């Protein structure tokens, strides 16, 4: 359990940092952060609410959608809601903005790869899915619809809403969409903690 907790929190911290890198790259965000940024730009920012707090609040709102889906959160689910946005805020304070294109490209690529590593780490800890992952699996369990269609539909919906609210859609959004699956496919088996069984 100690290793699981360490890996969980390391993964969540790295995930928050990856968000900050992708935001500072300013070349287009991953689907959920398009929504996060749109809400921030339209409502939260003018009200003095930080981007990281928006990430956490939207995570909590998604968690409420688990109730009719009869999904049960784990330690990792709650930690996900509390840690990722907080670390993203710290990263945004630390990483400068208005960088040149070569540095922006480096931040984007580094952020996407780090996101894949972080996803493999926190999911592989096996202490509960994140709110967004649980939403997807809950819908699949309740409807029997294919995972790929549910995931794609959710992400297209959050991109559309986020973009309408002013979120950043661009090359980074496309690059994230086509690479995050293969990256998690590589890193998840590396970090998955399997329980020991005895005969």
TrEMBL record:
Protein name: YitT family protein
InterPro entries in UniProt: YczE/YyaS-like
UniProt keyword Membrane present: yes
Domain of life where this protein originates: Bacteria
Species in which this protein is naturally found: Brevundimonas intermedia
Ranges that cross the membrane: 44-67, 74-95, 107-128
Keyword Nucleus in record: no
Keywords per UniProt: Membrane, Transmembrane, Transmembrane helix
């Amino acid at each position: 359990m100690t290793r699981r907790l360490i890996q969980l929190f390391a993964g969540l911290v790295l995930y928050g940092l990856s968000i900050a890198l992708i935001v500072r790259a300013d070349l287009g965000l991953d689907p959920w952060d398009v929504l996060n940024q749109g809400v921030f730009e339209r409502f939260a920012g003018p009200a003095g609410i930080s981007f990281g707090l928006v990430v956490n609040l939207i995570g909590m709102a998604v968690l409420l959608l688990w109730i009719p889906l009869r999904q049960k959160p784990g330690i990792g689910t709650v930690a996900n809601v509390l840690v990722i946005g907080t670390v993203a805020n710290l990263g945004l304070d630390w990483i400068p903005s208005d960088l040149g294109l070569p540095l922006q490209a480096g931040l984007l690529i580094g952020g996407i790869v780090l996101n894949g590593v972080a996803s493999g780490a926190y999911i592989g800890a096996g202490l509960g899915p994140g709110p967004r992952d649980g939403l997807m699996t809950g819908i699949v369990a309740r409807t029997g619809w294919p995972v790929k269609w549910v995931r794609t539909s959710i992400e297209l919906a959050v991109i559309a809403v986020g973009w309408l609210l002013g979120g950043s859609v661009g090359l980074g959004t496309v690059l994230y969409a086509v690479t995050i699956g293969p990256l998690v496919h590589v890193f998840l088996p590396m970090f998955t903690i399997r329980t020991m069984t005895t005969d």
